Amino acid sequence: MALDLPAASRESLADLASRLEVLVDQVGPAELDAFGDELFAVARLLAAQIGLRRHLADPSVPESARTDVVERLLAGKVQRPALEAVQAAAAARWSRSADLIDALQTLARTAVLASAEKTGRLDEAEDELFRFGRILDREPELARLLADPVTPIEGRIRLLDQLLSGKVTQTTATLLRQAVELPRGQHLDVLAEELAEMAAARRHRSIARVTTAVRLTPDQEQRLVDTLSRLYGRPMSLQVELDESLLGGLVVRVGNEVIDGSVAGRLETARRLLPH
């Protein structure tokens, strides 16, 4: 998931992400889950405390003063890896104070996905996140209820837990709870799909969203994966959705590019070409 960050913030996040990968290599899933939870809690704190966030992101404040604030605030409340990560973030350069929140949230999500990778559940989480995004896209009232700022956050999390209970991995549940608690102005259906893309990127893959009129067999899916991987020059991950209105064929979306091989698409093209 690519954040739209100015250059300085983008460079700072890239540096923090590199440091996180060192931690990923050194610790197990439980430690990564704890790290993710703690960084997300700090991101929520900074979202609520505007003055604190501005202080930690202010380049005119000496670096040592910013890291000392983090030490006093978090020492004994989070584990050492999370404390050091937040200190590194406070020492970095940010174009906007809000970028600090986005960076910590991104690191938290990366840690949770890395934990799933270590337990062999990353593919499953990717699929669950994508499908939940599709459900919300088809059910706008449900998406509205989960994002309604008038409803207390506890009520929205309770609704989400009822929807997910026993149906998804802990990774998916954690990431979606975080998204509901701190949406950062994004629609939840879009955010769920971006999290699926983030999971795919963790496996160095891109997502191809495939809409088809009939269910594909495993062999057909594999041939499509092979074809798209050759076409785009990188490994691909399929997310398949059924839509009988296509009549036949399929539609493939990779990023902003659309390959429409559906019968409905060809009929619409022919209709536009006919003289009026």
Strand-helix topology:
Elements: H1 7-26, H2 29-48, H3 50-56, H4 63-74, H5 80-91, H6 97-118, H7 122-138, H8 140-147, H9 153-164, H10 170-181, H11 188-202, E1 206-212, H12 218-232, E2 236-242, E3 250-254, E4 257-260, H13 263-273
Parallel strand pairs: 1-2
Antiparallel strand pairs: 1-3, 3-4
Could you describe the 3D structure shown?
Helix 1 (7-26) packs antiparallel against helix 5 and helix 4 (63-74) runs antiparallel to helix 5 (80-91). The model has no long low-confidence stretch (mean pLDDT 90). Strands 2-1-3-4 form a 4-stranded mixed β-sheet, sandwiched between helices. The chain folds into 3 domains: 1-119, no CATH class; 120-203, no CATH class; 206-273, no CATH class. It is of the alpha+beta class and 276 residues long. The protein has 13 helices and 4 strands. The radius of gyration is 21 Å and the shape is elongated.
